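Allow me, if you will, to draw on your knowledge of protein folds for a short while. I have a record of one protein: its chain in single-letter code and its fold written as C-alpha cells. Kindly check, if you would, that the fold set down in the C-alpha cells agrees with what the sequence suggests. Thank you for your consideration; the sequence and its C-alpha cells are set out here:
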Amino acid sequence: MRFLLPLLVALTLSTPAAGEAPSSPPAVFALVVANNQGFAPGRARLQYADDDGAKYHEFFSMLTEPGDVVLLTGLDSDTRRLFPALEPQVRAPTSQNVAEAARALAARIAEVKRAGREVDFYFVFAGHGDVDQGRGFLELSDRAFDADDLQALLRQVDATRAHVILDSCNSFFVVSPRKAGGRRYATPQDMTRSLAQRLPAVGVLLSTSAEAEVYEWSELQSGVFSHVVRSGLMGAADADADGRVTYAELEAFASIAAREIPNPLFRPRLFALGPGRSPQATLVDLRSVRSAVTLRVDAVPPVRLTLRDAQGLRWADLNKEAGMPLALRLPPRVARGLEVERPGGPDTARAWTLGEVAPGATVELASFSLPLPAPPAARGVQEQLRSLFATPFGPESLAAFERARLAEPAPVYGISLAERERMRQLVETFTTIERDRRRTETILFGATLVSSVGTGAFLVAEGDRDSRVQGISALAVSLLFSGADLLQQLRREDPEALLREFHASQADAAADPGLAVARVDYRLNRFLAQERNIRRRLETVGWIYMGASALLLGIAEVRRADGWPGHDVREAERAALLAAVSATSNLLRAHYTGSATEHLVRQWNSDPELRRLPRVAVVPSAGGAMLAVGGVF
C-alpha cells in the first residue's frame, strides 16, 4: 500500500480561481466517440480508447447540463469497474448511434439558440484512423466515418462554435482531405486554408501521427495524446491564468510536455487552430464550469504533479514554471479521495490525499513534506514515456515555444514510416534510372549537335551566297538551341546529390523525417516540371527542324524541276536529310527518353499508400468465428 501523509489544504466556498465568469456563458454540448476495435479485419485492438472516452465524458460533464454529453463506446470489463455509473447510458460507437446522437443534440442546441444563448459543441474521437486515396477516416465499430460525415454532423448540430478533438492516426486528412493525385502530405497552411473555406466556425485539435499505431501507456490507462490534452484542458495549459485555455496554449503545452521524450515516434504532435482561423481562440472556458472542484497551486515555486483519483486512476500531469499561478478544475468524483504525487524528483514515492470535498469547493495545495526514496523506473518504452512533462510549462516556455516555431520550418503531416521507406526506394530507383538515361541523352545530344552543325557547315561550304546564308542561319540556330539544351541539362536536379541528402537526413536522429520526405517530394516534382519544360522545348525544336527539312526537300525538287545540275540537287537533299535527322533526334528525346522517370514520380504522387499485402485474421463472432482476408490485390 502506498505510504500516505495528509495533504495540507484549505477548503473555501467556491470562487473562480482566475478572472470572472462570463455574465451569460455559452451552453456546452459534447459528443464523445471512443472505439477500441476498428471495423477493418485484423486491426490491432486498442486497450484504453474506452477509458479515454469515459474520462472525456467526466471532464465535459463539468461544463454541461446533465444529459448534454453523449458517450458512444464499448466499455470493457476493467473500464466498467472503474466507471460503473456510465454503463447504463453508454451506447456502441456505430454509425447509426452517431447519427441518432447528432439528431438529439441538434434539437437541444436549436432549442438553446432560440432562447438567445450561444452554443459551443465538442466532437471528440479516440480510436483508430486511416487514409484511403488521400481521404482520412475514423473507424467506428461498423464502418468508416470520413470528412464528409464529419462535415455533415457539424452542419447538422449547427452550433455557434464547434471544436473537433481527434486522437487517431491521419486525423488531419479527416478535416483536410487530399484530392486524388495531389501532394501526399499536408502543411499548416493547407489545413488553415481548407478549414477556412469549408468550416469557418470550427476549431480543430488533432493528433498528427501518420503511423499505424496509436500510442497508449498502461501507467496512464490512456492514449498519450488524450492524457496530455485532458491535463491541459483541466487548466494545466492556462499559461496566463485567465481561466481560459486557448488553442495556442494547449498546442504549446502538449509540445513542451513531450519535448524530452527521446524517440520522436512516442512524442504526441498536435495541430491546433481555433474557429475563425485563430490560434488564440478559446478552446475551453473554465470560468463557467457548472460543477467542479478547483485545485489551486501557489505561484511561487516550480512544481511537477501527478493527480490520481481514489481508485488510483491517473487523471492529470503538469510541470509548472516558477511564478505561474495554477488552478485546475477537477470533476467532483475525481476530487474525492484525490491523490497528488510529485514525480521526477527525490520524492517520487510521496503521495498526499484529500478526503471528502464538496462540489464547488476550492482546494489549496500549501506545502510538501520530506521526501521518501524513489522506486527504480522500468526501462524500454515505459522509460521513454516517463519523460512526459519533464519540461516546466508557463508564460516563459510558451513565449519560447512561439519564437522557436517562427524560426523553424513549417511542420508537415502525413508521412508514415512506410512512406519514408517507400521514398528511400523511390530515390534510389530514381538515381539509377537517371544515371542510365543521362548516358543515353548524352549520345543523343551529341548526335543532334553533330547533325545540326553538320547541316550548317555543309550549306556554308556550298559556295554560293544563298547556301552560305542558309548555312550560317542553320548553324546559329543549332548552336543556340544546343547551348540552351546544355544549360537546361546542367540546371536539372542532380539525382546523386538528392540521394546523398536523403540518406543524410535519415541518419540524423534530430531531423524531422516528415520534413525530409516533403523536401524530396518537392524536388522530385520540380524535377518533373523541368522534364516537361525540356520535352516541350525539344519537341518545338524538332518540329522546326522537320519544317526546315521539308523546306530543303522542296527546294531540291524545285531545282530538279528547273533543270539545276544534279550536284546542287543532291546537296539540297543531303541538307534536308541532315535536318530530318536533327528533327527525329529531338522528337525522340522529347517523347521517349523521360517516360520511366516521370512514371516513377507520377506513381509516388498518385498512389496514396503502399499496396497492402493480403492479411488473414480470425474474428470472433456470435456462435463461432469469421475468417477475414483483407488487402489490396
Observations:
- The two ends are 55 Å apart (CA to CA).
